[in-house]
Each structure stands twice: as structure tokens, then as C-alpha cells.
Amino acid sequence: MVALSGCAHSGAASHGAAPATGTFAGASTDASAAVESPADITAHATPAIVTVRTNLGMGTGFIVKADGWVATNFHVVRGASEISVVFSDHRELPVVEVMNANRLHDLVILRVEAHGLPVLSVANSDHVRPGDSVLAIGHPLGLEDTVSNGLISAVRHVHTGLDVLQVSAPIAPGSSGGPLFNDHGQVIGVATAFLKSGQNLNFGLPSNYVTELVENPRPIAMPLFFAAMNAMHEEEGQSLPDRPARQIPHHPLSALNGCSQGDQVLIGKTLQDAIEVGAPLYNEGKLAACYHIYEGAAADLTQRLPASCRGPKTALTDGRKRAAALNDAGAQAWAMRDSFDGMLELLQRANAGH
User: Fold this and answer.
1) Would you tell me how many other CB atoms lie within 10 Å of the CB of residue 236?
2) Best CA proximity match to 26, nearest among 217, 216, 214, 218
3) Per-residue pLDDT tens for 66-114?
4) Which of 98, 323, 85, 58 is nearest to 226 (CA)?
5) Which among 41, 58, 57 is positioned nearest to 180, based on CA atoms?
6) Which of 8, 162, 189, 286 is the 20 to 30 Å CA partner of 107?
7) Has residue 207 got a pLDDT over 90?
8) CA-CA distance, 154 to 299, in Å (whole number)?
């Protein structure tokens, strides 16, 4: 199975300095720029990397223009009826407009009402070569600013109009929309997919696709965008039932008492992996399959967690009982998803130190 993830980047930030506050500079490459360490690149880049949160899940994005333009993967927002952006200072703003989108390239440019934001420098991805260093930064499972590095394994021509970067830097679920950097701290691609059946097979979209969208905006108001998403589902025979009112539980931080860091990573990975598999099934109208994926993941996780990690085990068991008491597969899937999102939100707060 291929799970998608994405990234984008822009700005005129000088290397060795914090991200610039300015407008999109377009794809460029400064061959004279100094080579930076992964730690330095991470320190400079993270203020411009965001979480994109929807009613269906979350992904990663990055700021491409200082006045609120954010790039991420199209699949991160596909089918969503609510979209917001969470910044590094934990501000959360609703998306007010879609500036451009390309389903073929799995990219979308969102806009929030914000100004003076930090942006990143985008390189010309035509200069990327196999063997070049690459650094990925994303927010897998809500774990902010997770860094991995590796090499450009290959530049693959998929078909006319679509090339992808094969990278050895690990990409985890939830990192969709996160930037891929060269060793000068410039964005060269957007993390977009990993192949679960292959070892270390990860893919990104060339940064030039982001540049094209930013430089040729076609703004769409959110009501029209959401209507287009619904029409897309109907055209594909994927008309979905109305979403029930969400009942996401709010757990105190003490619910993680007795859970080791390893336990917390296991919880986050298992739940997000289940969402990565289940949400597309739901969007395809396979409601019962989605529910069974969620229920099975919760059952497996409650067995794997130690007795000391009591809070999550109890919360997941309660979620399974609530879902099992419902008669509609769609409602059952959402009941499990509420349970998952409550637990993921708890992990995010714990990771943020709140």
C-alpha cells in the first residue's frame, strides 16, 4: 500500500540565518551557498513548517508566502469539510481560501489570514541528482519537527507531466506535505509517499511543481472547494453519508501515567497507520472496511500495551464498546475515529509539554 505525505517551501532566506519574512522568490539555486549540517537546517526551517489539520486527519505543510500561503499534499485535504493550519507557536487558524491545486501532482496551496510569516528558500529541482543528500522534516503522528536524512536514490519519470524523487530518508504517516531539503537548506521537494511493502522506499514531488502553483494562483473560496470535493466523490460513485457530530474525548495528561515513551510512540504509530489505511477506504464508500480496520487496530493495541499503560488501554476499550453499540457502519467508523483522535490529541499535548 502507498501512504501519501507532502511538503513545500519558499522564500528568500539566506543560508545560515532564520527563515526570511517575505514573498515567494520562486525556484532558484545558489551554488555558492554554504553546506549546512542537518541540525542547522532544522533550526532554520522549523518555524516555517506547520501542521495541516482536517476533520479527517492531519498532515504537514510549509509556508510558501509570508501572507499566509501554505503548501501541502492534495490528499491531506481531499474530502475534508474543515481545514486549519497549526503554526510552530501553536496558533491554529482556519483556511479561508485555496490558492491553487493540482491533483496529478498531489499538491495544494492553502491560505490563512496571517502576515509576516517566515518562509523557506526553494531550489530548482531540475538540478537534483541521484546521490545528493536530502533531509526530511515532518510532523508524523502529531510529533512536531521529526527529522530524518538520507540520499536522493533516483529521479523517476512516472509518466508525461509527472516525475518523482525516490529518497532513502524515512517518511512516516502524517508527514504528508513536509519539505525535503538539500544540504544548503533549500527545499528541493515535497514528501509525498512511502511504500510499506518495500524497504526504505520513499518518494517526494519535485519543488518546481510547488513553484508553478505559487506563481500562477487560481483562488477558490472554501465553500466552492468543499463543493468540488463533494462533486468529485459523486462523480467517482463515492457519495458519503453525513458525518455524525464528533464526540472526541479529552483526556488529562495523567492518562499517560505508566506509559513509557516507547508505549506512546507505539500508540501514535498504530493509530495513525490505521487512519492512513482506513480513511481512504471510508472516502471510497467502504464504510464497514474502514470500521474493521479501526476496530482491529484498537484491539491489537490494547493487547500489546503493558498493564501499566492503563489510561490508553481503557480509552480504546471504551471507544470499541461505543462503536460496537451502533448499528450503522459509518457511525461505527466515526466512533472509532473519535477515540483515535482523542488519543492522538493527548499525545500531541504531552509532546508539546502542555
Assistant:
1) 11
2) 214
3) 999 999 999 888 888 889 999 988 899 999 999 999 888 889 999 999 9
4) 98
5) 41
6) 286
7) yes
8) 39
Q: Which amino acid is at 317?
A: T
| Under 8 Å between Cβ of 111 and 99 | yes
Burial of 129 (0-12, 13-18, 19+ CB in 10 A): exposed
The 3 state secondary structure assigned to the chain is CEEECCCCCCCCCCCCCCCEECCCCCCCCCCCCCCCCHHHHHHHHHHHEEEEEECCEEEEEEEEECCCEEEEEHHHHCCCCCEEEECCCCCEEEEEEEEEEECCCCEEEEEECCCCCEECCECCHHHCCCCCEEEEEECHHHCCCEEEEEEEEEEEEEECCEEEEEECCCCCCCCCCCEEECCCCCEEEEEEEEECCCCCCEEEEEHHHHHHHHHCCCCEEHHHHHHHHHHHHHHCCCCCCCCCCCCCCCCCHHHHCCCCHHHHHHHHHHHHHHHHHHHHHHHCCCHHHHHHHHHHHHHHHHHHCCCCCHHHHHHHHHHHHHHHCCCCHHHHHHHHHHHHHHHHHHHHHHHHCC
Provide mean pLDDT across the span 22-40: 68
pLDDT at 196: 46
Identify the bridge partners of residue 2 per DSSP, sorted by sequence position.
Answer: 195
352 and 90 Cβ atoms separated by less than 8 Å: yes
Q: Cell 513536509 identifies what position?
A: 178
Which pLDDT belongs to residue 34? 85
pLDDT tens string 275-308: 877 887 787 777 888 888 898 889 989 999 999 9
Specify the length of the chain in residues.
354
How confident is the model over 49-72, as pLDDT tens digits?
A: 999 998 888 889 999 999 999 999
More reliable by pLDDT, 278 or 237: 278
Instruction: At 201, list the grid cell.
Output: 522506499
CA gap 171, 176 in Å, rounded: 8
